[in-house]
Amino acid sequence: xxxxxxxxxxxxxxxxxxxxxxxxxxxxxxxxxxxxxxxxxxxxxxxxxxxxxxxxxxxxxxxxxxxxxxxxxxxxxxxxxxxxxxxxxxxxxxxxxxxxxxxxxxxxxxxxxxxxxxxxxxxxxxxxxxxxxxxxxxxxxxxxxxxxxxxxxxxxxxxxxxxxxxxxxxxxxxxxxxxxxxxxxxxxxxxxxxxxxxxxxxxxxxxxxxxxxxxxxxxxxxxxxxxxxxxxxxxxxxxxxxxxxxxxxxxxxxxxxxxxxxxxxxxxxxxxxxxxxxxxxxxxxxxxxxxxxxxxxxxxxxxxxxxxxxxxxxxxxxxxxxxxxxxxxxxxxxxxxxxxxxxxxxxxxxxxxxxxxxxxxxxxxxxxxxxxxxxxxxxxxxxxxxxxxxxxxxxxxxxxxxxxxxxxxxxxxxxxxxxxxxxxxxxxxxxxxxxxxxxxxxxxxxxxxxxxxxxx
Length: 456
Ligand code: SAH
Ligand code: SF4
Ligand code: F3S
Known about the structure:
The protein is an alpha/beta fold. It contains 14 helices and 21 strands. S-adenosyl-L-homocysteine is lined by residues 11, 49-50, 163-164, 166, 201-202, 238, 265, 267, 305, 307, 336, 338-339, 341.
């Protein structure tokens, strides 16, 4: 049997796309494998967001070239596919830099993967033109595995933050229709999925066609999806502060399936820097959104993205970021050194912040964020929370799942609990996971939004 190895870098959408490419290949008879040396097709689903992410691809391709040659000597062919955002950004340049690559395919074109593999028998191919058709209309049915799944509802970005490649690699903002999303969600739930995370580069800008032809917003969509029998939890990511509409904030207090967790990138606490970044919001707007969301859902876990060392960032401006973090308090966060990206406005700006200054600022910021994360995890100890069990745990007799706050938990229970909600008392917070014990029948903290609202 032919085998396919698919590896994904970058964001959740890339993980989703990688799973869909595996589906395309499975429909052609390729069994998935995790052993790259036995793969007849190797797909690298790449990320272009920072220089480091993009560079990884070329070192991986160097290793794959050796593997491909070794397999060829044994009479076996290997097709190497570069997909994702580096494929979109660099296109044919990849073919000249990496002689072992057979196919370069962009994030909007991978429904044609089978065709491209056939074409590559004649000649190496690049397919990165944004197609007129919608890839979702041409993908095979989704195979489901697992309890928690991503579902793309919106793709692309019209925001053009000065540092970011996404508007170029993913194209303009497009929302899928409610009907298409509902059909995919129902299929997932029939296949055993109990939690769906709706994903989009600007998921809260979602405005898909609804049943009546009118445009539906993200809270409209979630209200429809939460009626699917068997679906226990909904999440969404990633959001832009400017698109946190009142109705979406209100939904956090009224939709029982919507989990109390919000990833809302702020990037910086300095208004001067935010303006230079073309973020179109200031620090006060961000603080205000957080205050309003905490008013309807006081126990919400907050997460964010930060960039340090954006061109011209002064020590005082960086201190404003630290102050914002100290004030708000995050349960988790991602933080990065600014990385100039070819083709983005900020790439050519002067006043680059020296590397050692960036490193020092990042370390300080991550120190504070880590402290907050540990404090958040420690606060869970002693509480009883509802855990959605996802899989067998690290040790025999253990299972692993997530709390409403997206914290991973390990506890003793039979694997028959996979796919169910179990009340768990948290007894200890480790560095990467919480540990607990099942307390069947116990009342749980922070279970449903409606409950929280009623108690308030
Ligand atoms: N709205 C998007 C953001 C994608 S990029 C989303 O759906 O997730 C994720 C994060 O990478 C951004 O929020 C930003 O913090 C970071 N990032 C983007 N471009 C960057 C760059 N040039 N240098 C450093 N970090 C960057
Ligand atoms: Fe990039 Fe900004 Fe769009 Fe997010 S909102 S994807 S950071 S351009
Ligand atoms: Fe990376 Fe593209 Fe996602 S650049 S973060 S894989 S949208």
